[in-house]
Design a protein that fits this description.
single chain; 277 residues; alpha/beta; eight-stranded mixed beta sheet; 10 helices; 18% strand; globular
Length: 277
Amino acid sequence: MTFLTRPGKPTLHHRIDDFTDPWKPAGTIILQHGYARNSGFWYGWLPYLSRSYKIVRMDLRGHGDSPVDFDPATGSTLEAYVDDLIALLNALRLDAVHYCGESFGGILGMALAAQHPERVRTLTLVASPIYQNEQAAFSAGFPTREEALRTLGTRKWAEAIYGAPGFFPPETDARLREWYVGEIAKSDVEVLCGLYGLLRHANAKPLLPRINAPVLGLYPTSGALTSSEQEALLTEGIKDLRMVHLPTSSHAVLTLEPETCAQHVLSFVTDHDAARH
């Protein structure tokens, strides 16, 4: 395990997957997971990407193997999450990277690309909403998501949300569902409550015109969280956007379509790098 430690700031766990030829220069792709997930969710993408690019996967503060060594109530701000990314890039001596973020990881990428354009070569958004347009769907019958999490705990909450019919297609392997729920069940309740406090009020729309990097969108078809209205905002707001719709309505495109998604990303970033030379 590799950890970035910083005085007075959260410790960040990250993984580096590098199967590139050591005698050839290779770029770097950041794969950033979303809410309640962890860096392990990208496992299915690695065979397609890590032969050509160095891959960095960071666990968001308090997620995965990154410890809860901060106060989630006050430390869950967009500025703090962006600062974590910049700190990791600096520690790894990465000037500019290809950034690929899923769900909240994509919102984080929008902020990074808008605020630090020199650090982002390309930006890929995987089922990333611009704002949260739901509450009841993830509150498991409680008035708020936070109340559901604190009452049920992450295991029962994850079973109620991600294990329920509708989140995954009916034909999804039951073992995949169990693994997905089990990984999310490892999440800390207060970390999820703190991050949702940010997501509830976040709106990335003002960031979009400031994104100069080429953007690839990998989105479900008729997704519940990423509506046609949100996709229209992406199209209107981002200067250089290529949108791809995947053959599922599930938000879990990261896990359901790993090969297809990874091949789209590989083609996108290699085309960009070829055009620069």
